[in-house]
TrEMBL record:
Cell compartments where the protein resides: Mitochondrion membrane
GO cellular component: mitochondrial membrane; proton-transporting ATP synthase complex; proton-transporting two-sector ATPase complex, proton-transporting domain
Topology term for the membrane: Multi-pass membrane protein
Organism: Stipa capillata
MF annotations from Gene Ontology: ATP binding; lipid binding; proton transmembrane transporter activity
Record's protein name: ATP synthase subunit 9, mitochondrial
Superkingdom of origin organism: Eukaryota
Span of domain V-ATPase proteolipid subunit C-like: 8-70
Keywords, ordered alphabetically: ATP-binding, CF(0), Hydrogen ion transport, Ion transport, Lipid-binding, Membrane, Mitochondrion, Nucleotide-binding, Transmembrane, Transmembrane helix, Transport
Length: 80
């Protein structure tokens, strides 16, 4: 029973990767729109876009970490 719940929890933790993909898409979309509106600020906008990518990926790295913690660290202690 506990093993099944752990598998469900690990799978649910990896759903956050879809949210990270949406976040990266939003950062890229906003970067393209800002350069289209004001091309003279393209270099500064690129720096902000890279910062947005980095922060989004940092949050996305927590999802597999939690899935591995649920799968391998939280082991059930069977009483014999």
């Amino acid at each position: 029973m506990l093993e099944g719940a752990k598998s469900i929890g690990a799978g649910a933790a990896t759903i956050a990767l879809a949210g990270a993909a949406v976040g990266i898409g939003n950062v890229l979309s906003s970067s393209i729109h800002s350069v289209a509106r004001n091309p003279s600020l393209a270099k500064q906008s690129f720096g902000y876009a890279i910062l947005g990518f980095a922060l989004t990926e940092a949050i996305a790295s927590f999802a597999p970490m939690m899935a591995f913690l649920i799968s391998f660290v939280f082991r059930s202690h069977k009483k014999s």
